[in-house]
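Morning run. Coffee first, then this:
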Amino acid sequence: MTQDLLPITRIPRTGLPVHAVVVGDPARAAAVAALLDGAQEVSYHREYRVFSGSWKGLPVTVASHGVGGPGAILLFQELADAGVRTFLRFGTAGAMKPGIGDGDLVIAEAAVRDDGVTQQLLPPEYPAVAAPEAVLALQRAAREAGAPHHRGIVWTRAAFQPGLIPLFSYDGAGLAAIEMELSALLVTASLRGLVAGGVLVIDGANADELVDEDATGGYDPHRDVVAAGVERGAVVSLEALRLLAEGNEA
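And here it is:
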């Protein structure tokens, strides 16, 4: 019955596991779900593809939110309405400072709210911060998986391509990476009293001084080094959820 489904994402109002990994790409949602025991597709409407299964005995939701904060926040809100209480965003990002290589993981401590949606919901001074226990769980899972990883603040920016307006520079601010959806998740979680964090696979360099298009041929997120990082990141995300559920994040 349609009244048993939420209006935007068409996910069921009840019955989903309360721990979730959220990703941008519906195909990546399927790839993460393939790591679960007993994975089943729950729904697929627009960019919102949702699976349930279990990771080492922990019931898990895996869902895709598409590209950009305005659409992604609809998924986060409706998953919360459906009872999800722990969110880890697993995505890709561009490196913003030297020493962070392709395929490395960046564990977000907080995010710059340049997402194109939360500015319309809250004053700009309101922070977008990851739950400390989520940061620690992701760091522990990455360490135990042997995955190269870094911690830091990321820049969530709505525009992917440059336009006529000059790009505001965060040079010298020490940002680790740039992506498109995390701050929308962190703000949603803070407003609703939920646990949220994010881990991002580096798929290229975005800071001007790091880009060597002659050497790299330009942006290409489909290289083997990125694919290997995505495989590691999927396991890290799921294992971090398990650590959070068991209270073993430290």
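Residues 224-246 form the longest helix (23 residues). Good start to the day.
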